[in-house]
Amino acid sequence: MLNIVFLTNSWVTSFNQPGLCITVAMLLHYFLLAAFTWMCLESVHFYLALVKVFNVYVPKYILKCCIAGWGIPAIVITLVLIVNKDFYGNGSFSESHPYSNFCWIQDNTVFYISVVAYFFLIFLMNTAMFITVLLQVHSVKTRTQKTSRFWKR
């Protein structure tokens, strides 16, 4: 959905309908945040599968993932809309290209908080999970090598 909204964005902008542009910008923002959130949930799943292998029963795991994956971005979008719906709108990236209009977040502060900071938090979480998984895989490999040496003797 992120790709579809992104690819149709400039075409929708050509209709010069502010409400339509706000809707498209909101959808683009939502699906971008949802993609980041699902990426984070995938790293948590990776951690549970490779580090916490045994005794990791989470009741209604898929339902909880879906609520987090689709709900957290919806909360962010709702907060932006509650503060001011005009944060979304039609903007041009350059004066020399009049056809470069794009429906997106108009306020830099909102962009940095709701996209860049959100991505940064997801990136930190994924990096922490990745390092944890690598350390776990390395320790398993080391233990396996020590065990094989013991049995060879």
Automatic annotation (TrEMBL):
<feature type="transmembrane region" description="Helical">
    <location>
        <begin position="110"/>
        <end position="135"/>
    </location>
</feature>
<dbReference type="InterPro" id="IPR000832">
    <property type="entry name" value="GPCR_2_secretin-like"/>
</dbReference>
<dbReference type="GO" id="GO:0007166">
    <property type="term" value="P:cell surface receptor signaling pathway"/>
</dbReference>
<dbReference type="GO" id="GO:0007189">
    <property type="term" value="P:adenylate cyclase-activating G protein-coupled receptor signaling pathway"/>
</dbReference>
<keyword id="KW-1133">Transmembrane helix</keyword>
<keyword id="KW-0472">Membrane</keyword>
<feature type="transmembrane region" description="Helical">
    <location>
        <begin position="20"/>
        <end position="41"/>
    </location>
</feature>
<dbReference type="InterPro" id="IPR017981">
    <property type="entry name" value="GPCR_2-like_7TM"/>
</dbReference>
<feature type="transmembrane region" description="Helical">
    <location>
        <begin position="61"/>
        <end position="83"/>
    </location>
</feature>
<protein>
    <submittedName>
        <fullName>AGRG4 protein</fullName>
    </submittedName>
</protein>
<dbReference type="GO" id="GO:0005886">
    <property type="term" value="C:plasma membrane"/>
</dbReference>
<dbReference type="GO" id="GO:0004930">
    <property type="term" value="F:G protein-coupled receptor activity"/>
</dbReference>
<dbReference type="Pfam" id="PF00002">
    <property type="entry name" value="7tm_2"/>
</dbReference>
<feature type="domain" description="G-protein coupled receptors family 2 profile 2">
    <location>
        <begin position="1"/>
        <end position="153"/>
    </location>
</feature>
<keyword id="KW-0812">Transmembrane</keyword>
